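Q: My labmate handed me this sequence with no annotations at all. I'd like to see what the chain might look like in three dimensions before we decide whether it's worth expressing. Could you predict it?
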Amino acid sequence: MATVPRAGAHTCGIDAAMEVIGGKWKVSILWVLDERPHRFGELRRTLPGVTEKVLASHLRELEQDGIVHREVHDEVPPRVVYSLTALGTSLNAALSPLGAWGSEHLLT
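A: Here is what I predict for the chain of 108 residues:
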């Protein structure tokens, strides 16, 4: 799936990346999905404090940006599984040094 360009000019790569990962829960969603694909309810339980509305919105935006893949299984009840795309995996790899920096400098 190709990414959908967002409106607005970007002045640098960081600006463009922040537009994709901006939002309180997006990076946390990426970290969880890096482990394995998850269903919506699993994600919600793994991220205590996120509301259903915000999680659905963030997943929809990440899907539109080509970061997350949403797979609907034709079952009763319907089963929807979220996973990272190759682009999402590469984004997590880019975020990894940032996480290491935070662990090294900000955790007590």
